[in-house]
Amino acid sequence: MKIVQKALMFFGLLSLCVLFIYALQDAPTDENFETKLINDYNVYALQVPEDLEFSGETLPLKNPDILERMDRELLVNTYWQSNGLLLFKRSGKYFPIIEPILAQYGVPDDFKYLAVIESGLTNAVSPAGARGFWQIMKTTGRENGLEINDNVDERYHLEKATHVACKYLLRAKAKLGSWTLAAAAYNAGNAGIARRLKEQGVSNYYDLLLNEETGRYMFRIVALKEIMNNPKKYGFNFRDKDLYTHIPTYKVEVDTAVTNLTKFAEQFGINYKILKLHNPWLRKPNLNNKSRKKYLIDIPEKDYYSLIE
Predict the structure, then answer these.
(1) Are the CB atoms for 191 and 178 separated by under 8 Å?
(2) Which residues form the Transglycosylase SLT domain (predicted)?
(3) Where are the domains positioned within the chain?
(4) Who's near 242: CB < 8 A, 6+ residues apart?
(5) How far apart are CA 148 and CA 157, in angstroms?
(6) Beta bridge partner(s), residue 254
(7) pTM of the full predicted structure?
(8) In this model, does residue 34 exceed pLDDT 60?
(9) What does the pLDDT look like over 150-185, one tens digit per residue?
């Protein structure tokens, strides 16, 4: 009998140990975002929120065509999970640069999502020749004071390109009358949107019959705004520390030619690659600067990269 009791006690203790080990493995840890994540690979229909708006302008979701278009973009952008997670990560790095410039011009904060759909917050290159986060064409860039040549292309300069985008949007708003139409004009041009409004006898983006790209444009912006403001609602799980962060830099003034940017970078304890990552507007291994123009080159603070020996 004692042997049986001891055996039962042994197996009871063993069971408790197994349960304890399992509990430890299943317990919330930093590795699983402080909460247990549930692997759920089911696909669900989404409920389109009733109060969606862009820059204070409400979407007419009672219109079944508008509802279906909005539903499409919410579905596409929710279930393209890898791309969505990258957008969240990049936003932590680049929104803090974009947001204050929009505010400076009085452009609604919602327009940062226009940059998201234009480029995915990368220095993208379009087949039509647009460049950078804001996908600025060469003519538009030059008309707004950007230097664009083989040596320097300031469409890749995020701060300067954001200033250009703001100026364009303000002109479009003044011409077309609403922020929604101004955003659409960023894709199709002021003249293009104005012409279609006149041809179709309407005054609202949501009443226009447009090509596929421009017709989806506003819905994509609003979908990304909704998803990026409500990540958990749409199944995105991450911590603040999972987001990419802006690396502090200081500016070095240059008003002469730099014949070798590799040697220039080494003076500041970084290599050529790091220099170009922070200054993608420098397009060659040298800076000609025949006009003796004053350039400000961003140098990352030394704590963020290993120094060159």
Answers:
(1) no
(2) 107-204
(3) 2-32, 53-242, 249-304
(4) 89
(5) 11
(6) 295
(7) 0.85
(8) no
(9) 999 999 999 999 999 999 999 999 999 999 999 999
Chain centroid to CA 173: 23
- Nearest one of 213, 155, 149 to 186, comparing CA atoms: 213
135: left (phi over 0), alpha (psi -120 to 50) or beta: left
Predicted pLDDT at 290: 86
Banded model confidence at residue 40, pLDDT cuts 50, 70, 90: low
**What is the spatial distance between Cα 229 and Cα 235, in angstroms, rounded to a whole number?**
12
Whether residue 194 contacts residue 175, with contact meaning beta carbons closer than 8 Å, is answered with yes
pLDDT at 304: 72
- The 10s digit of each residue's pLDDT in 177-223 is 999 999 999 999 999 999 999 999 999 999 999 999 999 999 999 99
Q: Among 86, 85, 87, 46, which residue's Cα sits nearest to residue 67?
A: 46
d(CA 268, CA 209): 55
DSSP secondary structure string for all residues of 22-83? HHHHHS--GGGTTSPPP--------PPPTT-EETTEE--TTSHHHHHHHHHHHHHHHS-HHH
Q: Does the pLDDT of residue 23 top 50, yes or no? A: no
286-301: average pLDDT: 94
Tokens 């104005």 found at: 194
> How close are the terminal C-alpha atoms of the chain, in Å?
75
Q: How far is CA 67 from CA 49, 213, 225, 280, in A?
A: 10, 17, 16, 40
Question: What's the CATH fold of domain 53-242?
Answer: Lysozyme (1.10.530)
20 alpha-carbon distance from chain centroid: 43
